[in-house]
Amino acid sequence: MPRQPTIFLSHGGGPCFWMEPPRRFGPHAYDGLRSYLSGVLASLPARPRAILAVSGHWEAALPTVSTSAAPPMLFDYYGFPEHTYRLSYPAPGDPALARQVQELLGEAGIATASDAARGFDHGVFVPMLIVDPAAQIPVVMLSLQQDLDPAQHLAIGAALAPLRDDNVLIIGSGNSFHNLTTFFDGQEAESVAFDDWLTEAATAPDAAVRNDRLTHWASAPGARACHPREEHLIPLMVTAGAAGPDPGRRVFHDAIGNKRISGYAFG
Question: 253 pLDDT exceeds 90?
Fold first, then answer.
């Protein structure tokens, strides 16, 4: 079985694929992202037996793994049209994979917790409804550690790297730009500067250089203007850590509301 890559993807804004984009964005604002997400499975070397999803919408004191065999829905967005609260993503969980995740992290000296009640938050179900609309691939969720330390999340990813050889796809779901207070201002300079820096860092041919740059992401041009709080960027650290020496490449790039958005794959 070929080794799976790891992927950091942007999951859009709320239930963006099931509602009209803001008028100033134009009617096709999310078409490019939808098209990319719909082609993720076809881009893989094999259909994964399961997906480990690290969402920017779940933080816990310790890295926490969902263990339910049938995760419910968790509608963690507010103020959207009523029909967006009737979305359903009935993919199964995978308790055996959840145990494997905890074992791998434990072997690396990383303490974990488990959660049998955790549902699919929109950082998971929104992209997965496009990636695997039949909801046939089991999905296990892994939380961020709430200190959001980039080096720690690179280490978490490194501990999980063996999953790639077990036909598990590791997805980090966040956004390369996430500042809700400026998302609608139409300005692009800071997002362009940060996106250029992030792409150079994520695609650095030397993994040690890549990981050092990502560890110090906050010193990048436009960093805090694009991420006042970094929870939507930190899933990238997990995917980069799980990449090992494999190089990164940018697999998605678009401007949504004049903000530059990118996605990356490793391996």
Answer: yes
Adjacent-strand bridge partners of 174: 10
CB burial of residue 128 (10 Å; 0-12, 13-18, 19+): buried
Helix (H, G, I), strand (E, B) or coil at 255: strand
Could you give all domains of the chain from N- to C-terminal order, each with its CATH number?
Answer: 6-266 (3.40.830.10)
User: What are the tens digits of pLDDT across the range 83-103?
Assistant: 999 999 999 999 999 999 999
Tokens of 110: 């990383």
- How far is the C-alpha of 178 from the C-alpha of 242, rounded, in Å? 23
Predicted TM-score (pTM) of the model is 0.97
Average pLDDT over residues 141-154: 98
Amino acid symbol at 182: T
Q: How far apart are CA 94 and CA 81, in angstroms?
A: 31
Enumerate the β-bridge partners of residue 265: 7, 249
Burial of 266 (C-beta count, 10 Å sphere; 0-12/13-18/19+)? buried
Query: What is the dihedral sign for C-alpha 119, 122, 123, 128?
Result: positive
Kind and range of the H or E element at 106? Answer: helix 95-107
Buried b (16+ CB within 10 A) or exposed e, 99-108: ebbbebbeee
* Whether residue 186 has pLDDT greater than 70: no
31-64 pLDDT tens trace: 999 999 999 999 999 999 999 999 999 999 999 9
